């Protein structure tokens, strides 16, 4: 197999862009607005004619600039299969989502246990929240004053 020529990247004002055949590669600085000392990049790959063949590595793979260029070169050379990479990204997303669901479920169970200890159901809490919001700021402050022992406002 003949050695492919290197993809030439041009600065497009905020990202680098390179082309090879039907593919366009864009390298973005992940930390442009956050921490400029961290020089990690993500890559966006687009196909000229087939939109579904495009993908973005943000949230999945981060590279130093030279690593990002090498990644693009390997895709252009056919050394990395974009479909396999997309399946890998989908599996990572699914695992991340399942972990988030487990975490939130655990917190919901703990909250439910606290409500139960107070003799409340979640629906009761929601009803109380609606009533509390309907009081407005003045009603809120009157109740806080009463709870602090200040009593009800005079003239009521």
Kindly state the percentage of residues in helix. 40-55%
Strand content: 15-25%
Output the structural class: alpha+beta
Shape: elongated
| Strands, count | 5
Order of helices and strands: EEEEEHHH
Main β-sheet description: 5 strands, antiparallel
Overall average residue pLDDT:
89
The total of helices stands at 3
Physical arrangement of strands within the biggest beta sheet: 1-2-3-4-5
Radius of gyration, whole Å: 28 Å
The N- and C-terminal alpha carbons lie at a distance of 91 Å
Describe the structure.
The structure is a single chain. The chain is elongated, with a radius of gyration of 28 Å. The protein has three helices and five strands, in the order βββββααα. The protein has helices at residues 65-77, 82-117, 122-147; strands spanning 10-11, 15-20, 23-29, 41-47, 55-56. 48% of the residues lie in helices and 15% in strands. It has a five-stranded antiparallel sheet with strand order 1-2-3-4-5, covered by helices on one side. β2 and β3 (23-29) form a beta hairpin. With 156 residues, it is α+β, with helices and mostly antiparallel strands. It starts with 9 loop residues before the first strand and ends in a 9-residue tail after the last helix.
């Amino acid at each position: 197999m003949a050695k492919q020529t290197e993809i030439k990247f041009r600065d497009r004002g905020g990202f680098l862009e390179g082309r090879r055949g039907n593919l366009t590669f864009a390298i973005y600085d992940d930390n442009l607005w956050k921490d400029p000392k961290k020089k990690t990049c993500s890559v966006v790959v687009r196909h000229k004619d087939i939109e579904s063949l495009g993908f973005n590595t943000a949230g999945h793979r981060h590279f130093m600039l030279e690593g990002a260029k090498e990644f693009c070169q390997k895709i252009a050379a056919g050394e990395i299969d974009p479909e396999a990479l997309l399946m890998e990204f989908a599996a990572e997303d699914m695992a991340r989502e399942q972990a988030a669901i487990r975490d939130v479920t655990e917190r919901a169970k703990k909250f439910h246990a606290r409500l139960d200890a107070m003799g409340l159901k979640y629906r009761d809490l929601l009803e109380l929240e609606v009533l509390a919001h309907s009081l407005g700021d003045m009603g809120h402050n009157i109740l806080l004053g009463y709870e602090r022992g200040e009593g009800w406002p005079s003239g009521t």
